[in-house]
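Lab channel / #folding
Pinned by the channel admin:
"Please post every new chain as: sequence first, then the structure tokens as a reply. Keep commentary short and put observations after the output so the thread stays searchable."

First post following the new format, from NK:
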Amino acid sequence: MSTPSLVRGTPVKAEFVTRPNRFVAKCCLEDGSVVDAFMPNPGRLGELLVPGARMILEETSFHANRRTRFTVAAVYRQDMLIGLNTLKANSIVSHLIKHQMVPGLEEIRTVSSEVAHGRSRFDFLVENETGMRFFLEVKSVTLCGNGIAMFPDAVTARGSRHLLELAKLSEPGAKSVVLFLVQGKGQEMFVPDYHTDLDFARIMFQVRNSVKYVPAAIDWDMELKLKDSVDVLNIPWHFISKRLVDTGAYLLTLRIDRCSKINIGALGGLEIRCGYYIYVGSGMSNLSTRIARHLRRRKKLRWHIDYLCDVADRIQAFPVRSPWAIETEIAKEVARLYEPCLPGFGSSDSPLSTHLFFSETNPVTHEAFQSLLQQFRFVRP
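Reply from TO:
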């Protein structure tokens, strides 16, 4: 088996432009032309896919079933190269297992791949040195910051189900394995993304004694080939146990396509500009329920933000779970980046004049907004 590479053939350099849907990325080539490239990674990737991000594409031969000539292979975050093609994850792991490159998994060998069992299909059936067999599931990790790797970057009911099933299939001396394939070196620890998917994080913690977790960080050389060193990251379980709470703060981004004047409770009639609004709120009890209410179209208008949600054309929510009240701290940082608007909006118990901010363009595509999210989400023990 040859050393895995990010691309077959000559890599194509490009810059990210936009992502019209989960499976397509518009990229600008070095000659200035903009092309559609197949995105083989269904994750949100918001912190990576910002306009101007340097990308590596793979040029594919024409096929009648393909709509695009290119496939996204990787993206640079600063100087770190992060592979994005999840379709290659299993071949990478197969190589690592065959060459005994993963600390703690040197004694296993692959028996078969893509193995169906019950309602699920697992990536590998493997065998240890005593002949006992067990399942190994692979999860691709691209969400990294502040020395921490996190998974998932979007809610994964399938991932939660896998953990529960693997826990049931474990036997003494043959624990099921979840190998988190972390793209990019420089991380020191792995934490389930309790901000994005609290259920997955809680289940991962719950079955930690029945499933072996291996966060394996890989890296790529200058020729885009897999380096021969693998780092297994620490999992700070005590810290995680204190973070599995449904409390904290959240940011809402709201797109308003039509300028209008609306009545906002006690604030009265206010002019609403077209563009994007960022709202910072708190939920120190049932944060998930609070956010779900904001995203629901039919509800009694109660809080200031309800009136704005009622006329918004699109709403996105970004929870930041914490045992402590951090709403004001986040709002202060948002105020450094965006224009405060509508004095008194959502700030009755805050030292700030408002918790609502305005942007002419979508803040989710701004590197500064993504960095702010990571500042509060990637908390170290």
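NK: The chain has three domains: 11-84, 87-242, 248-377.
TO: also worth noting, The chain is about 20% helix and 35% strand.
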